[in-house]
Amino acid sequence: MAGNSSSEALVFEADAQVMALTAVGWDAFLERKGSTGAAGQAIFKDIFQSEPMMKELFKKDISVRFMMGVKLLLEAHENRAELGLRAEKLALQHVSVAMSRFHVDVFKLSIVRVVQAELGDAMPAPFSEGIGALLVFMGSVCRSTRQLYKNRFDILSSSWKIVKGGHALDETQVRAMLEDENGEQDSESPASVARPEETNKRGKEAAAPTNEANMSHEARTNRMRLSDIQVPRTYNEMFRFNASVMGFEGKAWMDDVLESFDDMVTNAASPTRLQEECKVLALCLGLQRGGVALKEYRSVMLSCLRALLPKQWNSDYETAWTWLWDTIEKQITQLKGKPRVFSNSLQLFFGRMGEEREMSLSLEIFEGFFSKCAEASEFLNVSNARLLYIFGRIRGIAQEIFRDPRGAVMDISGLGLKHAGFGVREDLILIFVDICLQAMSNYSNDPKVHEALRWTFDLVTQILSRSVLEGSTAVMQAVTANSGKLLRQAVADSSRGSRAKLLTNVQVGVVTISPVAWAIETRALKAAEAMLTDLLTIRADRANYYYGMDVLFDRHPDILHMLCTSAPSLLKPFLDGLVWRSTKVVDRQRRVNYYLRHLLVDKDNRFSQSLPALVSHGDPEIIIHPLSQFCLDLLWTRLGASTFFFTKLWFMFTLVIYCIGLQYGILMFDSQGPGRWALISCRIFVYTLSLGQLLVKHSYSDEDTAVERLQKLMSARFNEVERMMKALTEQSARELNSQLRLSTASEELGSDMLQPQLSVPEEFGQLFDSREESEDQHLPEITRDVFV
């Protein structure tokens, strides 16, 4: 990032031999632990056990990133300038943390304890000295970086919240600005010049208190004009207004910058995230046909900020925002023209690769990945056809990010959330990407292709790793482990009002995932039950009650359908959570509240599909649940009974007419008497209106429903398989008997010439061949897609 290096005045004083032995001990520790994630978790577990207050500094699991940071510092211990740059980059990512010498000592003691417990006598003697010197240097860089940049980041964060939310100008400032502008316009008009004899009169009128009744028609008109003018209040509104005034209206590239500007300002304190946003913006700007002049955006940006922050703006604000834009502009300028070159190189590389080479490349990648990281086979325990499909996704993402950068970022973010749900660690992604690049570089000798592959996969890795890190919340980790205890610990420190959102929404950018739905989908039933119990528990403080029912149904209106299809065992705990029973007993009775609004109507006040889902589920224990019974009884007494009665009135009426027309004795005893016309009329009524209605109804209705047709089809299929299996069994038994007889005969003859073979019916083989083809066709849809 632009700016003076905070590590220039800091000198890393440690012997080179000591640091070399420290690096050897660190590598041995990682090798003994088996993975970077396991080693980092062991260190942080010891830190939290020795100093529980350290948990407040780390709201997310950063064990993998911490281990990678230490590795980067150890690799650069010989080049002190590079070490200072890497330390400053890491310090910028933690500029919000007030790092003290106490924190450094805690990390040092925990690392030495864990490494010594793991290596024992194999730990190098100077390891404690080397790791201590490295951590002290890193702590000093963090403190100096915080002192240098924190004021800038605070200014950017606070001012951006004001201008983004539209709270920069209050009503008084807006009206004063408009009145000043209107006053300047009036002063230039001839009508605004007062005659000398009217000066005293106007002065008296100005001194007197005015009201709406005493205002002139012109004054009231001006007041109405002021109220009708829409003054820009947010940054986006003010930017478009100023751009049109300054003559920059209609430039599409400014809209791309404006769309990314929020993320860049919000993540200004994170160099890695800011670099990622600049790369994505450079891809978007590369798709623009016209020229891009970033200096123009800077002019409009500063004018907007000065207008929206008239009281707060000073030289510190000017310096902070100028520094931020210079950093953004520098990174985008460095990539000018490169996205188009990278896109053409990748298109040429993948276009020349045939189907056979693509298959061999994919198998080479995954074989190398499984050999280097054995635990990856737990996530990718699929067929070769599925692995080829995953490689196709990799190729598609690498090309799509140049055609539609923002859409590709959303797809990668959603993929990262799925990785977090499956418990994939960040270090596994880095290993997989390195193996991909090594394997692909063997299929091309063009350095442009190598550079394009490296740049593209670095960007995809940044987005995917960030999504995994942001999505790997404590709740998602508990879902991955399917542990109710871990989930209760994850939400134990959360406030009453934020627990529901924490359990129903994990967001990365604009992509979200619901831990509740993910737990139900992946059959993590223990974690899902704990989440439903926590959501449907009523809590209260002195001011409010907190109940997660509304949040749950707003996020998942079909939650009952999800439970019926994927987790029927959770239906009873879910329905129990919608019932509140008082602990106070009055006259041997106690109050019970049924929260059934979402079971009866949806958010549009239409009939909800929750009760039909329960009825279709067909579980008697769920139907006789008190809440289900109460809902069904309420529907029947308030709505269903009267509707059912009125719909059966026609049937009862036609039944009476039928009985009258059938029985001669009701209307007459003489078939030739005058009552025969009434008898004929009753029968005509029955045959035309009643019987005719039934004929029309059954003529235009399907003979079988879709479910019944599917059941018949499946039944016929199973009967066919059963018949063929029976035929094969009978044939096998006959041939087995003949085999025994022939083997006896061969023993008597002393010859091995007679060797019977079992034959399979041709239609049976065709049946299973068709089943294998159908399974191969559906394989990519039913297998979990983990890495890409």
Automatic annotation (TrEMBL):
GO terms for molecular function: heme binding; oxygen binding. InterPro entries: Globin-like_sf, Globin/Proto, Mb-like_M. The keyword Transmembrane helix applies. The keyword Transcription regulation does not apply. SUPFAM superfamilies: Globin-like. Residues 195-205 have a biased composition (Basic and acidic residues). Coiled coil: none annotated. Residues 180-223 are annotated as: Disordered. It comes from the Eukaryota. The chain crosses the membrane at residues 649-669. Keywords: Membrane, Transmembrane, Transmembrane helix. This is Uncharacterized protein. It comes from Polarella glacialis (Dinoflagellate).
